[in-house]
Each structure stands twice: as C-alpha cells, then as structure tokens.
Write a structure and sequence with these properties.
The protein has 160 residues and is mainly alpha-helical. Helix content is 78%, strand content 0%. The longest helix is centred in the middle third of the chain and has 42 residues.
C-alpha cells in the first residue's frame, strides 16, 4: 500500500518534452503523454476501484521518462500528418480556384460554339464562290466566253 508519509512527487516530464513556449512539437508530445496518463489512471480505477495515490503513479512516471524520444517522434509524426492534411486541402482549394478562373477566362475570349460553326459555313461558301470565279476566269481566258456559255447550255439542255 502507499506510504502516507512519503512526500507527493510530481513528474517533471513537461520540461523533458517542451523546450519553450513556441515548441509546438513538444506541446503535442506532452499531450500524448497526458493521454497515456489518463488511460493509465482510468485502467487503475477500473481495476482497483479508486484513484491511484501519487506514489502509485511512480512506475508510470518512470516509464514515461524513458519514453521521451518516443513521445517526441509520435508528436513529430502527428504534426507532419496534420501539416500534410492542411497543405493538401489548401492545394486542392487552389487548384479548384485556378480551374474556375481558367474556365472564366476561356469563356471570355472564345466565341460560342455556334458562332464558330456559322463562321466556318460562311467561310466555306465564300471560298467556293471565289474558286468558281477563278476557274471561270481561267476558262474564259483560254476558250472565250461563248465557249463557256455553249458548254453550260449543253450541260443544262443536252442535245437530243
């Protein structure tokens, strides 16, 4: 049983885990230590039906001081995972915003699909007419206008 005359002793693991007020990893490591301590106390209470005396926590504190490097490593992993999660979410949001912006810019500078189709049709008609005029001019220069008229009449009204 616990010796009631033994002086209450605190674990000074906080100083082993946290190097300063801006040591975020150390603070996370300390919170991991506290999670384990709470779990230890709850397990003790379930087993013994009472809270542990300070001297009954000595074994836990001794083990915890031996695990300082493990607490720090676990904390570094948690902080890293959290940072990657935040970075991933931010990167995803930036990519979505970039896609929306790009789509808006494309819509601003590109005509509608139907306008493009109508421009293609008009361009094809103009090309066909110009090609016909050029061919007629060449044939007229080689054979004369009367020959062209005769050939056109023969095509439209073939001799019987």
């Amino acid at each position: 049983m616990a010796d009631p005359n033994k002086k209450h002793r605190y674990s000074f693991i906080y100083n082993d885990l946290v190097s300063g007020e801006n040591d975020f990893v150390g603070l996370v490591a300390y919170s991991i230590y506290k999670e384990e301590k709470i779990a230890y106390v709850k397990a003790f209470e379930e087993k013994e039906g009472r809270e542990p005396e300070p001297c009954e926590l000595e074994d836990f504190h001794t083990l915890a001081r031996q695990r300082v490097a493990q607490y720090t490593e676990l904390a570094e992993n948690r902080v890293s995972n959290f940072g990657q999660l935040l970075y991933g979410e931010r990167l995803e949001a930036l990519e979505e915003e970039r896609a929306r912006t790009l789509k808006r810019e494309i819509e601003k500078i590109s005509p509608s699909w139907w306008r493009g189709v109508s421009q293609s049709i008009v361009g094809s008609l103009i090309y066909t007419i110009m090609l016909g005029v050029i061919i007629m001019a060449i044939l007229c220069a080689q054979h004369g206008a009367s020959w062209i008229l005769k050939e056109c009449m023969d095509v439209l009204m073939p001799p019987a």
